[in-house]
């Protein structure tokens, strides 16, 4: 009986039944060792796991002819490992090109995966789905190319975003030029590829501003992406510059403008933010030189600005503080509001006491004549809070001030005889 040699699969197109072949090869290896195959073989894939694989006699003969199959050279393996060390990962497609007949040497393939792991190289899925191992997000200090310590980031959304953009390959100079040419012709797909390939550039710039107050890392990345979109629109490849060099300034400009607009409770114009930053640098320099807080005159001389402008900068550069800021470590949880006196607004108990006083006074003077009520209201400011002189009240009633004094004295005498006067003694 003649056994046909298994047909080789082209390296350019991965075998459509690659997963099935791997399972057959492993089952054949187990059968050759005289061991009973497992009842069920599972492979981590979305497809429904199949039942026990029956090993045909033809497969055993193919395994015996394994020596005739050409294995990947050590030189090619080292080249893949070197490439993976440089960028932090390799793709499944690259592994398929290296092992075009993976079902023929599963054992060697497992050894190579171990070498990749020892070298700190991750395997990124690119749609093939042949690997049972899930790629990990690059982490700082473990071969990751992003340079971000994800262990310190609590938001799952950040991890998911970094994982997604880590799968997108970077563009070479020739690819940038080619895509830019297509973009100028209105190719939206080329524009999208340029944007996606530079999302990692936005993250690397945004994390430098992560310590700034007012915006989270995700917000900074989003603002930087807006700058990236603008850079793609304005980029001219004919000038010979790399896109990343050109886009960096647009991304920085978008992030700094967002910080100026949104980081403060009271918005300050962008040009004034730059002036405030210069003022703070000069202030810190003078503190180190003088060993004390510099005067406004000294800052003015160092900056070369007018004294009035420096005072204005000092005034607007102050940060706002919430009245609910806790003060001290006591159990009462005292806030700043408890220690600041509000001289303009009355306290609730004071407002209630004044309202009761008004009611008592109205109940007393209601027994007087309308003329006497009007004179007392003007003399003591019971209505508008302004006390008028005898001369002013006399002019209002067209009488002398002596006559006003007599009417006032008579009205006060009536009040002293009022029975409800005791209520006013508390005030």
Automatic annotation (TrEMBL):
Coiled coil: none annotated. Signal peptide: none annotated. GO terms for biological process: DNA-templated transcription initiation. The keyword Acetylation does not apply. GO terms for molecular function: DNA binding; sigma factor activity. Residues 1-49 are annotated as: Disordered. Pfam families: Sigma70_r1_2, Sigma70_r2, Sigma70_r3, Sigma70_r4. Residues 1-27, 36-49 have a biased composition (Basic residues). Residues 219-232, 389-415 form the RNA polymerase sigma-70 domain. The keyword Glycosyltransferase does not apply. Gene3D superfamilies: 1.20.120.1810, RNA Polymerase Primary Sigma Factor, Winged helix-like DNA-binding domain superfamily/Winged helix DNA-binding domain. Keywords: DNA-binding, Sigma factor, Transcription, Transcription regulation. Belongs to the sigma-70 factor family. Sigma factors are initiation factors that promote the attachment of RNA polymerase to specific initiation sites and are then released. NCBIfam families: sigma70-ECF (TIGR02937). This is RNA polymerase sigma factor. It comes from Candidatus Falkowbacteria bacterium CG23_combo_of_CG06-09_8_20_14_all_41_10.
């Amino acid at each position: 009986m003649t056994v046909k040699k298994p047909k080789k699969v082209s390296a350019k197109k991965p075998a459509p039944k690659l997963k099935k072949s791997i399972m057959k090869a492993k089952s054949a290896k187990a059968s050759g060792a005289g061991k009973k195959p497992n009842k069920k073989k599972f492979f981590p894939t979305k497809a429904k796991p199949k039942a026990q694989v029956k090993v045909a006699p033809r497969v055993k003969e193919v395994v015996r002819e394994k020596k005739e199959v050409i294995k990947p050279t050590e030189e090619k393996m080292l080249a893949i490992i070197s490439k993976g060390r440089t960028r932090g990962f390799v793709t499944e497609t690259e592994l398929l090109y290296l092992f075009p007949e993976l079902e023929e040497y599963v054992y060697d393939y497992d050894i190579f995966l171990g070498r990749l792991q020892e070298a700190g190289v991750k395997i990124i899925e690119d749609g093939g789905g042949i690997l049972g191992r899930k790629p990990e997000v690059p982490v700082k200090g473990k071969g990751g190319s992003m340079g971000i310590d994800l262990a310190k980031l609590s938001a799952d959304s950040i991890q998911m975003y970094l994982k997604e953009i880590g799968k997108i390959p970077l563009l070479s100079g020739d690819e940038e030029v080619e895509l830019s040419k297509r973009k100028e012709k209105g190719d939206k797909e080329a524009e999208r590829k340029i944007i996606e390939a530079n999302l990692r550039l936005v993250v690397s710039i945004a994390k430098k501003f992560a310590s700034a107050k007012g915006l989270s890392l995700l917000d900074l990345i989003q603002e930087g992406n807006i700058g990236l979109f603008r850079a793609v629109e304005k980029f001219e490849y004919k000038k010979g510059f790399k896109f990343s060099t050109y886009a960096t300034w647009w991304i920085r400009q978008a992030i700094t403008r967002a910080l100026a607009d949104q980081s403060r409770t009271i918005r300050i114009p962008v040009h004034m933010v730059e002036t405030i930053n210069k003022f703070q640098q000069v202030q810190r320099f003078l503190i180190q030189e003088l060993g004390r807080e510099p005067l406004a005159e000294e800052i003015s001389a160092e900056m070369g600005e007018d004294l009035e402008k420096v005072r204005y900068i000092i005034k607007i550069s102050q940060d706002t503080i919430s009245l609910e800021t806790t003060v001290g470590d006591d159990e009462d949880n005292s806030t700043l509001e408890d220690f600041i006196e509000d001289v303009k607004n009355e306290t609730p108990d004071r407002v209630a006491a004044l309202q009761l006083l008004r009611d008592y006074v109205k109940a007393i003077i209601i027994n007087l004549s309308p003329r006497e009520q009007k004179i007392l209201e003007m003399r003591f400011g019971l209505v508008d809070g302004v006390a008028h002189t005898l001369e002013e009240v006399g002019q209002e009633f067209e009488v002398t001030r002596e006559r006003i004094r007599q009417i006032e004295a008579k009205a006060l005498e009536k009040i002293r005889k009022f029975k409800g006067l005791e209520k006013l003694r508390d005030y």
